[in-house]
Amino acid sequence: MLDQITWDVAVVGGGNAALCAAITAREAGAHVVLLEASPRSFRGGNSRHTRNLRAMHDRPDGVLVEAYGEDEYWDDLLRVTGGQTDEHMARMTIRASAGAPAWMAARGVAFQPSLSGTLSLGRTNAFFLGGGKALVNAYFATAERLGVQILYDTEVTAVALNAGLVRELTLVSRGFPVTLRARAVVVASGGFQANTSWMRESWGEAADNFIIRGTPFAKGTVLRDLLAQDVAQVGDPTQCHAVAIDARAPKYDGGIVTRLDCVPFSIVVDCHGQRFYDEGEDVWPKRYAIWGRLVAQRPDQIAYAIIDAKADPLFMPSVFPAIRAGTIRELAEKLGLDPATLEATVAGFNAAVVPGSFDGARLDGCQTEGLEPPKTHWARTIDTPPFSGYPLRPGITFTYLGVKVSEQAQVLMNDGRPVANLWASGEIMAGNILGRGYLAGFGMTIGTVFGRIAGEQAARYARN
């Protein structure tokens, strides 16, 4: 049946970016099929685990408080990426984000005010009521109501390019090989973080110790196929959205609850009991995504956050309980660290702390003096039992290597020519804007903005 139909638009993927593209194309009158590699129960890709979207606003708007203008948004992005971004494309995304919450709400997504402990994002980010799973369910319900054909357990294994056009897609649908034809195609199939062998090509054996926070279906099959056909590549294969998560998390699909937000109020040591980076460099929403990479670069890709009782109420706890002890020596033994070394590290840190006015909600200037690396904010002595430790591993959300696109989301070849009927949205093209680093909620922004652009452009091509 599938191989006897020529669809107007085929959307590859089942997360936020794919759903935005499919809904937009269908609303534009296109006959749309959405191809989701996962079974229905795991639909939604990484979007199932999201909580919010970063949106520009010039005044309070819905759940968004105060104002968050284009220049501040751009400055935040510029700082976390270190300038490794396309300013034109980034600003275009930022401006378009202003209309995203209203568009989403009109398609069933509900929002709520940010809760205490959610990275202090109430001014910049709109939080989804029910989280990412509720968002995904709302979009799927809208897509079904509009008449989008949704195929689960359907993996696209090849995109046949010839003379600047996608001629057909090769699929495995519920175990059966299928050839599918469409006038226009949108690829929104994510990165390759769940493909350990591909990750090893850039990271070596360290990749074996990475934990994949989201979907196990992000193997990069479509991405690798397109790059092998002379589609232009963008991004560094070693760059990714990587956070420090609880080392006790499952290998795949643990989601956002496995993230640890205690780092700014802790000291973080490696397996040798030594600190290696400034835990208080900046507010957590602008620095939480560097810690996965930092831990990935440490021996055995493991680290430990150490706090005392004063810090316990300052962050959202992990789904896994803290490892607690009455003394630093006892804690070291429970964590498998050398007790004398950890005691010396804590003592050296405590001696370097400069007394100040602690404020966990802002940059407070409570710092160390004469310590390397320093701690520039939220530095308090670790001296009040019980002491707690959390083991950390790199938690990979998505990779930044992707396909190069135009500002109209059209996929480009290495010679600069666009593929006439191929567009991309979401993580498979996020590297056009995210060269490195991450800004909380920005992945959802990219997926929403470029998903809508890709869906509109694909539908227009199919009609004409």
Automatic annotation (TrEMBL):
| Entry cofactors | FAD
Domain FAD-dependent oxidoreductase 2 FAD-binding residue range list:
8-433
Claim: Oxidoreductase is one of the keywords in the record: yes
The UniProt GO MF terms for this protein read:
oxidoreductase activity
The yes or no answer to whether the keyword Metal-binding is present is: no
UniProt keyword list: FAD, Flavoprotein, Oxidoreductase
So which domain of life are we looking at?
A: Bacteria
| Cross-referenced SUPFAM superfamilies | FAD/NAD(P)-binding domain, Succinate dehydrogenase/fumarate reductase flavoprotein, catalytic domain
NCBIfam families xref list = CobZ_N-term (TIGR02485), PRK08274.1 (NF006130)
What is this protein identified as? FAD-dependent tricarballylate dehydrogenase TcuA
> Which lineage is the organism of this entry classified under, starting from the top rank?
Bacteria, Pseudomonadati, Pseudomonadota, Alphaproteobacteria, Acetobacterales
